[in-house]
Amino acid sequence: MTDTLAERCARLQAPVTELVAVSLSAAYRPQDLPELTRAIGAVRGILAEDPSGLPDGAFTQWLPIALRNLDRMQEAVDRGDAGASYAILTDKTDGFIRLTVGCAGFPGWSPDGEG
Prior knowledge:
It is a single chain. The chain has 115 residues and is mostly helical. The protein is built from 5 helices and no strands. It has helices at residues 2-28, 33-47, 58-78, 82-89, 97-102. α3 packs antiparallel against α4.
């Protein structure tokens, strides 16, 4: 099960990094909204995969919230409000900071930005 989580976290690294970058960019450049939609879809594709092989813990507890956040982010993008989408992504309680907690201990994931 830990191997499944490690693999999922590894596959999320690049798409989530891109999601963060494009989310910030789109907040200032409306022409980046289509790219933000694509980035949301890429992350959703991985997070929506079958969770049955994942161990119970921070990642799986956040997973339903993450999918709901991605829905809310896309709704904001559809309204042309990339700033609201970015606020959902970076929410300090339920945002993607919880992914860094869920993937902590695996290469490239650390809530404090190291590792």
